[in-house]
Design brief:
The N and C termini lie far apart (79 Å). Helix 2 crosses helix 7 and helix 5 crosses helix 10. The radius of gyration is 25 Å and the shape is globular. The protein is mostly helical. The strands form 3 sheets. A two-stranded parallel ribbon has the order 1-3. The chain has a single domain, classed as Lysozyme (Orthogonal Bundle). Strand 4 and strand 5 form a beta hairpin. 54% of the residues lie in helices and 9% in strands.
Length: 289
């Protein structure tokens, strides 16, 4: 009787221990699951409303209206500008990565002889859009480049977020407009008697994506695209961006100094937190409409 009692007692204790350990394990595993974050679209009026990411996990935010940073101290302005830009940069890179995955799957269907007439139309459309000749080359051209370079160019082109084009048009990279059918603002100066216009964007994200899109399709950056498919070293890659500015080599030297002085290469390891599937593309479509 005593033996049976002890057996039941031990079995009960073991069961209790097993249940407790199992609950603890499930709770621990549940905490490891990263929930997808929705993309927030924000129009802010104060620099203090800029979301500061405490670590290398960046929250997905699309800023549609931004406050002036001009009245802030230099150090605080730099910090706010970087955190203002990081979500847009990583969201734009995520969209480019999506485009590359789409091209890869399309190429696989052609390689397997399973391409449909719709696939042929899509192929022609993509090659035309990116001014390319083959899907293989397009996949290479869609390789990304480091956040440090994208940030450094944003800093130079916008003057740490103080330029009129940045403040009034969300135009981070000084990209010109050549069509009266698109949103744009007039520059104060002209070039050889011709009025200059710059594109106007609905969000910082759109500006960054347009910059990445331009780098991916314009022939002036062909050598840069080739180099970034072979290396992600920002100090090597910047030498292929001489054509971005009329300053040429001086521009490259400035890029290097900005990256080094502000320790921008540390942001190359920053990642966007997990976002809801298709949320980015829904937000993009909503903005375009």
């Amino acid at each position: 009787m005593k033996i049976r009692f002890l057996y039941v007692l031990v079995a009960g204790l073991f069961a209790a221990y097993f249940i407790g350990a199992s609950l603890l394990w499930f709770k621990k595993e549940e905490s490891k699951i990263i929930k997808a974050q929705p993309i927030r679209v924000l129009a802010i009026n104060s620099p203090d409303s800029i979301i500061i990411n405490p670590n290398s996990d960046v929250l997905p935010v699309m800023y549609t209206r931004i406050p002036s940073l001009m009245s802030m101290s230099a150090e605080k302005r730099k910090d706010r500008f970087i955190h203002l830009m990081l979500p847009s940069i990583l969201l734009a890179k995520e969209r480019m990565a999506y485009e590359k995955r789409k091209v890869k799957k399309l190429k696989e269907r052609f390689d397997l002889g399973k391409a449909t007439p719709i696939d042929s139309v899509l192929k022609d459309s993509l090659l035309s859009l990116y001014k390319n000749s083959t899907l293989t080359q397009l996949m290479e051209d869609l390789n990304p480049h480091p956040v440090s370079i994208i940030l450094a160019q944003a800093i130079i082109e916008s003057g740490w977020g103080t330029s009129r084009f940045f403040r009034e048009a969300n135009n981070v990279y000084g990209i010109w407009s050549y069509s009266s059918n698109e949103k744009r603002i007039k520059a104060f100066e002209s070039r050889s008697g011709t009025q200059i216009y710059l594109r106007q964007y609905d969000s910082l994200y759109e500006s960054v994506y347009d910059y990445l899109f331009t780098i991916t399709r314009v022939s002036a950056y062909q050598k840069f695209r080739k180099a970034r498919s072979e290396s992600q070293d920002p100090f090597r890659l910047i030498w292929y961006l001489k054509n971005y500015s009329e300053l040429r080599t001086e521009y490259v030297e400035t890029l290097r100094n900005v990256i080094e002085h502000n320790d921008l290469h540390k942001y190359d390891s920053y990642k966007l937190v997990k976002i809801k599937q298709d949320d980015l593309y829904k937000k993009v479509v909503a903005m375009e409409n």
